[in-house]
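User: Protein folding is very new to me. Would you mind checking the protein record under this note? It all follows right here:
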Amino acid sequence: MKLNKSIIEFIKYGVVGITNVFIDFSILNLLMYITSVYKGGLLIIFNIISFIVYSSNGYLLNRKFTFKSKNSSYFLYIVVLGSAMIINSYILYFISINNIMNINKVIWANEAKLFASVISGIFSFFLNKHFVFKNTAGEK
């Protein structure tokens, strides 16, 4: 029963994550388009900007929809997502500057971001589940 609950929470977390990925990629691509910057250190700044927007959305949806938590900590959530953003930004930076197959710069930046998002998303799910939303997860 507990495994089923975790699977359902993971699926809900994924749905919220898809929403946040849409927000994240939209902001990132808009900033890349405006500045014509598709690799390197400036992408970290773009990542921070998109993080601020999608993390607020993610906290509200995960608190109400995924974990149904009433006493979760926004501070802990920001710490977890901030850690995930650092991992995400490092992966994005490293992959974006190493386009060894010489793929189109826009496509390569988005592939790098997608890979970084999957890795950091899995990391943040477990931390959110066990630290941020742990106290009241499952209470009605």
